[in-house]
Write a structure and sequence with these properties.
Zinc Finger, Delta Prime, domain 3, 3 domains, single chain
């Protein structure tokens, strides 16, 4: 496999306080963080020339400049005339990156939903295939127009700093520490090809434990398989800009995080531990994976990082370690009592667990760390896994709650009430439970389907319909893909936990249809 094929293969498999009390996204919405838009116009040395995308420029501009209420008929016409969904997503991602550059909360959430929406489309019947893509394109154009379209573009043409590629990662990290966006861009561009730039970026990304810092970096790299490697710099610069904008907040709220990797790498002598082919590493059985997951879930962040580092040092392969981390974060969805008190927001009522809930954020972060580890250099692979364990434990304690004593879904009491044995009846009951926002019953029904040995695909089909139709507080697409890919990656005894968690989140987000979805159905002639 040559270098380009390897990059494309890795991109394909890489699929994603007051502030601490409510989460960074909510804090941003409430105006508790530094205003991001001001810096974007502060005259830093980004250059004056706009980014242009060659043959794609016309479609990028259409998606960037069209009024949202006029967009979908134009896009459906393009589809009918042969434009592929992949090309539409690629051009929407370029429009988003050029305008927001990773610096707008709704903007980067919309970007992070694009690749998941495209992959969701591949699971649908032909007549419905465009629905998740149209939904995200509508959200994207609406936000682009709200923020001024082409009049407020963040990313401009830039050049590398002309210095050694070998030291680009260190220069990038230092420029981010200085909150110098222009120097950060220049260091990234000097790093080299897509693999080199991604690995240089990871040395900065791994200094934080904010969900958006992690998932955005993962989705930027993931998008290379859609937009093409020639747009690697455009995609990855979004993550750079996010890190620059977050730097002061990161130092203030999580000052300890940047010290985790130096300590752990030194203590466990991790450099080179993940070098070479993983086929020669130690094999982990199901019990080992479950026990490491339990340790991560119940530990302090530093202890969880040590547990992962110890597993790496002992020679266990990255896949098994990642499976354990996924089990730990899955517990946060299964055990969560749901939003209470000040956590309640518009579209996120009491008891809900969708959107930026502790569990969804933790699962998306763990998934992003794991997929980045799969695409990273040996050093960064170890760093991603250690930080994944650290963040899983941090997520459990940072926003409060008694997760260690709350019981996971489904409870025996609710499970006993699901008496049906035939698959068709159970699937109908699942659809009804979701429409009733009955999280407990939805979890129990899916658990019973698994216990009876039925196939998972019909369950995914029920949940997929809601992931397409509901807004999900900006997270429906991302978390559907997270749960789907974790199900595929999990060991047999642990797989159905991922589906149970997805059923719970789906029931939580139901009855809040996404803007543009009804129009998309009408244009496609589906119900």
């Amino acid at each position: 496999m040559d270098r380009r094929d390897r990059r494309e293969f890795l991109a394909d498999i890489a699929r994603g306080m007051l502030i601490a009390g409510v989460g960074y996204g909510a804090a941003y919405d409430l105006g508790l963080t530094k205003a991001w838009s001001a810096d974007a116009k502060a005259g830093e040395a980004d250059g004056d020339k706009p980014l242009e995308f060659g043959a794609r420029e016309e479609l990028v501009c259409l998606l960037q400049e069209t009024a949202a209420e006029k967009l979908l008929p134009l896009v459906v016409e393009r589809i009918n005339n042969g434009t592929e969904l992949k090309e539409l997503v690629a051009c929407a991602a370029l429009a988003n990156a050029r305008t927001f550059g990773g610096e707008d909360y709704i903007g980067f959430h919309t970007f992070m939903a694009m690749a998941p929406a495209l992959r969701m489309s591949q699971e649908l019947p032909a007549a419905r295939r465009a629905l998740p893509v149209l939904k995200v394109l509508y959200r994207n154009t609406k936000r682009l127009q709200e923020q001024g379209g082409r009049k407020s573009e963040t990313l401009k043409q830039v050049a590398g700093d002309g210095k050694s590629a070998a030291q680009a990662a260190a220069r990038l990290r230092e420029a981010v520490h200085q909150e110098n966006r222009a120097a950060s861009d220049a260091a990234l561009l000097a790093a080299g090809d897509a693999d080199a730039a991604f690995n240089a970026l990871l040395e900065t990304v791994t200094e934080g434990a904010d969900v958006h810092r992690i998932v955005l970096a993962s989705r930027c790299y993931d998008m290379l398989g859609i937009v093409g490697l020639e747009q690697a710099q455009t995609m990855l610069r979004q993550s750079v800009h996010y890190c620059v904008k977050e730097e002061a907040w990161n130092r203030r709220v999580h000052p300890q995080v940047s010290k985790v990797l130096p300590r752990v790498f030194d203590q466990f002598k991790l450099d080179g531990k993940l070098a070479g082919k993983e086929s020669g590493l130690r094999t982990a059985d199901d019990a080992w994976v479950a026990e490491l997951g339990r340790v991560i879930f119940t530990s302090t962040p530093d202890r969880a990082a040590d547990a992962v580092a110890g597993a790496i040092a002992e020679g266990f392969d990255a896949t098994a370690i990642g499976q354990a981390i996924a089990l730990a974060t899955n517990e946060l969805i299964l055990r969560d009592v749901g939003r209470t008190g000040k956590q309640v927001q518009a579209g996120k009522p009491e008891g809900s667990v969708h959107g930026d809930s502790i569990g969804v954020h933790a699962c998306d972060s763990a998934h992003a760390w794991r997929t980045m580890a799969a695409a990273a250099s040996p050093r960064n692979r170890a760093a991603c896994l250690v930080m994944a364990g650290y963040q899983a434990a941090l997520d459990r304690i940072e926003r409060g709650g008694d997760f260690l004593n709350w019981q996971p879904r489904p409870t025996d009491e609710v499970l006993k009430k699901v008496a049906a044995n035939d698959q068709e009846s159970l699937l109908k009951q699942l659809d009804g439970a979701i429409r009733d926002n009955d999280q407990e019953r939805a979890c129990a029904i899916v658990q019973r389907v698994g216990l009876l040995g039925y196939a998972e695909r019909p369950v995914f089909d029920v949940l997929l319909e809601f992931a397409c139709s509901e807004e999900g507080a900006l997270h429906a697409e991302k978390y559907y893909r997270t749960a789907s890919e974790e199900f595929a990656a999990a060991r047999t005894p642990h797989k159905w936990r991922q589906l149970v968690a997805l059923a719970r989140v789906t029931a939580s987000e139901a009855n809040q249809p996404a803007a543009g979805y009804a129009e998309a159905c009408k244009l496609l002639g589906v119900t």
